[in-house]
Amino acid sequence: MITHSSGSLVGLIAQADFELGVMPYPGKEEGTYASVPGGGNFYIMKGAPQEQQDAAWKFVEFISGPEYVADYSINTGYIANRASAYDTEAMLAYVAEVPQALDTRDALQYAGAELAIQNLGQVRGIFHDYLQRAINGEMTAADAMAAAQVEADAALVDFCP
Amino acid sequence: MQASRKSFKTLPYILIFPTAAFVALFTAWPVLLSIYQSFFRQRMNIAKFREPAFIGWGNYVDLFTDPYFIDVIKNTLAYILGTVPISIILGFLFALLVNRKVRGIGFFRLAFFHPMVLPMVSAATIWLFLFTPDYGLFNAALRFLGYSGPENWTGNPSLALLSVVIVAVWKNSGYYMVFYLAGLQNLPNDVYEAAALDGANGWQTLWRITFPLLRRTTLFITIIAFIDSFRTVDHIFVLTSGGPSRSSTVLLFELWLERFEYQDIGISAAITVIFVIVLLAFTVTNFITSDRKEA
Fold first, then answer.
1. Which of A119, A133, A158 is nearest residue B245 as measured by Cβ atoms?
2. Which domain holds residue A124?
């Protein structure tokens, strides 16, 4: 059993010579589940000339079209980022063969919001440190998270307007 | 006659120009720039701090009032004290061991020296396997010797720094051995003959003759060992990433964090300046003392 990105699903299925199942993380309460989504974003800069912004938007529409998204998901295992991708012919044919691809999508119902903040490098570092303190038994989980919150707040003060 | 004297004067400058240009461009200029930037607040990931603003000693005050940075300095000192003396002593002992005319001694010389030839990252990756809890070779060897303590060396906050020290000592001892070996093979034979005539035992010969005669070698090795211990971080990236809970973060790793993870140009410039001052103070002191001893 491994905890891994859905992005390794295609590679895992190609290499495993046994039946392979996918499930979300176990949740906090008995019988519940959790899921940790992530992903990249497209940005269009406001300072750019209008025709560049229009062209950028055309590209975003093109690259996030259902056919393309389905193709990307089929070839990597990453969850398609729009529901309509799962209605495309290519995807329907693929999930008939690899039903695990639907399990990764269905795990999304247990997902919460992604940690999207300023100064992510430092804040993430702070939480890593205190998680390690808690795991290594240097602090209780509650103390560690309280201390991490204090440090993270301090690291974010400069970002308040 | 006059023309040849003139060309004799300009030639040395032409010859040192390429080196001088590189040193100026890649050493002197960055140092000056860092000193300048260390007095400014500039953080690339905050829009309002992206333009540098003069804050005087602010970055230095921030650093030295941050208990976490004090921990980094303590880690750095512990790392230096852990690596420099031990790897020098081991290098000396290895050199004494392999400075014998025995068949197959070349194999042992190679064995002691080969860690130096490996790139630090691949050496650290091998050590990561050796340190693996339960079935890692390092733990298996320690268990065989009767050790029954914690086995997750790189993941244990009180052992993580020690494990990067072990890798550094293993990596550097063989390198220093080569310098000692070269020194040993250049020692004059007559003093040993005189000592033998006077009835000196092996221990006396070692401490009263060999070691003092190798003083300049020791001095040289101390300098490069000290500088090495400041500038090697490759194995920390591979083995511990400065953790767990920052327990193996040393100065250069912290510098990388501040500059490339936290995008804080002012603080990273201040750390660079501290770095330069420490190394400069050390090398200048050594330079002066070694000059005096020679006279």
1. A133
2. 120-159
- Annotate A110-128 with b (16+ C-beta within 10 A) or e (fewer): eeeeeeeeebebbbebbbb
Instruction: Examine residue B47 and state whether it is found in any structural domain, yes or no.
Output: no
Q: Extract the residue ranges of chain B whose pLDDT is less than 70.
A: 1-8, 291-295
Tally of domains within chain B? 1
What pLDDT shows up at residue B3?
Answer: 52
For residue B272, the model assigns a pLDDT of 95
B119 contact partners, CB below 8 Å, separation of at least 6: B234
**pLDDT value, residue B7:** 54
Chain B: closest CA distance from residue A161 (Å): 9
ipTM of the shown complex: 0.74
What pTM was estimated for this model as a whole?
0.80
Whether residue B19 lies inside any domain: the answer is no
Cβ of residue A140 closer than 8 Å to a chain B Cβ: no
Q: What's the gap in Å between the CA of A72 and the closest CA on chain B? A: 30
Distance CA(A101)–CA(A94), nearest Å, equals: 8
pLDDT in tens, A47-63: 899 999 999 999 999 99
Instruction: List the domain range (segments joined by +) for residue B167.
Output: 66-294
Domain match, A143 and A69 both: no
B94 half-sphere exposure, CB direction, 13 A CA radius: 26
**Domains in chain A: how many in total?**
2
B48 assigned to some structural domain = no
A-chain CB neighbours of B46 within 8 Å are 118-119, 158-159
Query: What is the Cα–Cα distance from B232 to A83, expressed in whole angstroms?
Result: 49
> Is residue A106 located within the same domain as residue A154?
no
pLDDT in tens, A97-154: 999 999 999 998 998 887 778 888 889 989 999 999 999 888 999 999 999 999 999 9
Interface-testing mutation among B49, B55, B69, B245, with chain A (most A C-beta atoms within 10 A): B245
- Partner-chain contact A136 B46, CB within 8 Å: no
| Distance (Å) from the alpha carbon of A130 to chain B's nearest alpha carbon | 6
